[in-house]
Amino acid sequence: MLLASACTSGSDEDPVAVGDVSTTLLSGSADAPSSDTEEADAEGGDDDAAAEEDPNAQAEPARRVPSQVSSETGHWVGHGFMTEDAIEVVWSEVEGADVVYQIFRFDSIGLDRDAVELVTPVHEGIGTLSWIDESVEAGEFYTYVMRVIADDEVLERRWTNTLAVTDTTPPTDITGLAATIEGGEVLLEWNPSEDDVEFGSYGVFRTDVGDEPQYVGGGGDIAVTSFIDNDLPSSGEVGYEVVAFDFHGNRSNPVAITVSIP
């Protein structure tokens, strides 16, 4: 079966999977975890051991904490939850009075971090440590930059990884599937599918009597809506199913037709 693969960014930063939280810092080493993280891990291990010793202990609900890497400041920025139409940006607190957090969003991949200009923030706030961006689109890639300002002085800039927003909406089902038998061939034709983000391909599957559907062909052009099968049995019925895929692994419902071979 043909399955379309997900898009890749082509940059040195891997898209972050939905539900995970990741951070990228401009300065510092990414090799050593922060002492706070190590202490939290150690405490978590003690809690696990205590839970095993007490069979009546109630399990704490799972919590995701943004991963941290050590730096001169120890600060981080990442993302919390992500859906098809929203991303939560989260960050650590910078101590000081009236510290301003500015968030900038870039919907492109492989930014030159040394050259990019921060012009208009999509969010600016004092005291809050999270913000929900509700203007994202499924299947797109976003990178967020935080600029921290105190007393009109820029303290630092921090970056998230490139975030790939999940697309879970399948292409529309094909319509108008028809079959024509001529010269020992079956010509299948249908109306094109549509996808809200990026179409992937059509897949044509054939079922002979008593067999499971087998992939026999298709195409990656949304406008090419036909397929010729010239490997037919001498007689009997042959079933076909046509499915549309997008580039995020979603598939439409199969549309079937049966052809009688004379």
CATH class of the largest domain: Mainly Beta
* Major beta-sheet overview: 5 strands, antiparallel
| Rg calculated over all Cα atoms | 26 Å
Instruction: Kindly state the percentage of residues in helix.
Output: under 10%
Number of strands: 15
Shape: rod-shaped
Total tally of structural domains = 2
User: Could you say what the CATH architecture of the largest domain is?
Assistant: Sandwich
Instruction: Report strand %.
Output: 35-45%
Low-confidence stretches: 1-53, 55-71
Q: Number of helical runs? A: 1
Can you put this structure into words, describing what you see?
- The protein is mainly β and 262 residues long.
- The protein folds into two domains: 122 residues, Sandwich (Immunoglobulin-like), CATH 2.60.40; 87 residues, Sandwich (Immunoglobulin-like).
- It has one helix and 15 strands.
- Strands 3, 4, 6, 7 and 8 form a five-stranded antiparallel sheet that branches. A four-stranded antiparallel sheet has the order 12-11-14-15, with no helix packed on it. A three-stranded antiparallel sheet has the order 1-2-5, with no helix packed on it.
- Strand 14 and strand 15 form a beta hairpin.
- The protein is rod-shaped and about 85 Å long.
- It starts with 34 loop residues before the first helix and ends with a strand.
